[in-house]
Amino acid sequence: MIVAFSVTPLGVGEDVGEYVADAVRVVRASGLPNRTDAMFTSIEGEWDEVLDVVKRAVAAVEQRAPRVSLVLKADIRPGVTDGLTSKVETVERHLTQ
């Protein structure tokens, strides 16, 4: 499964990059395939391990922010691996045709 999520600290002002970095550090330390862009961090793995990482990423932000917003989207496809790469490669292939 692939989960795309965004953690936003609330009540800390407009510049939230350092708080988001706390969440991304947790994701990267997990060892699971992941990718971060301007809006979301995507992580790939089994249901329990992915949601555990998301929970720990939120907890990292909660340590310094009085309130946290979480947006989460999941692609649940049993048996599919390397979806973070293969989905993008499929779109790129179609763009070159």
UniProtKB/TrEMBL annotation:
It comes from the Bacteria. NCBIfam families: MTH1187 family thiamine-binding protein (TIGR00106). The lineage of its organism: Bacteria, Bacillati, Actinomycetota, Actinomycetes, Kitasatosporales. GO terms for cellular component: cytosol. Residues 3-92 form the Thiamine-binding protein domain. SUPFAM superfamilies: MTH1187/YkoF-like. Signal peptide: none annotated. It holds the Pfam family Thiamine_BP. Belongs to the UPF0045 family. This is UPF0045 protein.
